[in-house]
């Protein structure tokens, strides 16, 4: 079971990232946080079909999450 405080920190970071994606016509939705702290994200809107979505997910979302919530192991698209 994931600690409630860690869940809130993850959600807070994702909320901080959303305006950057929305500025380009995209968005993200948190789908799941696994017990081993893999964060599963769905990219939507323009981000869902963008050829750069993998880089956005890994270089943007994952790196930011890991810096602010070091407990996060990885971020995956679903």
Order of helices and strands: HEEHHE
Beta-strand level of the residues, as a percent range? Answer: 25-35%
Q: Please tell me the CATH architecture by its name.
A: 2-Layer Sandwich
Number of individual domains: 1
Helical proportion, percent range: 40-55%
Largest sheet, in brief, is: 3 strands, mixed
- Return the CATH class: Alpha Beta
Query: How is the largest sheet built, in terms of strand order?
Result: 1-2-3
CATH topology: GMP Synthetase, Chain A, domain 3
* Total count of helical runs of at least 4 residues: 3
For this structure, what is the CATH homologous superfamily? Fe-S cluster assembly (FSCA)
Mean pLDDT comes to 93
Description of the molecule:
Helices cover 50% and strands 26% of the residues. The protein has one domain: GMP Synthetase, Chain A, domain 3, CATH 3.30.300.130. The mean pLDDT is 93. The chain contains three helices and three strands.
Sequence-ordered SSE layout with sheet pairings:
Elements lengths: L3 H19 L3 E8 L4 E8 H4 L3 H16 L5 E4 L1
Parallel strand pairs: 2-3
Antiparallel strand pairs: 1-2
Helix pairs in contact: 1-3
Kindly list the characteristics that best describe this protein.
78 residues; alpha+beta; GMP Synthetase, Chain A, domain 3; three-stranded mixed sheet; 3 strands; 50% helix
In short:
This protein has 78 residues and is an alpha+beta fold.
């Amino acid at each position: 079971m994931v600690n409630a405080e860690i869940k809130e920190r993850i959600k807070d970071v994702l909320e901080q990232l959303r305006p950057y994606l929305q500025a380009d016509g995209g968005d993200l939705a948190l789908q799941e946080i696994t017990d081993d702290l893999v964060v599963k994200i769905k990219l939507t809107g323009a981000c869902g079909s963008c050829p750069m979505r993998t880089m956005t997910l890994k270089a943007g979302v994952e790196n930011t999450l890991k810096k602010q919530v070091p407990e996060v192991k990885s971020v995956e698209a679903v």
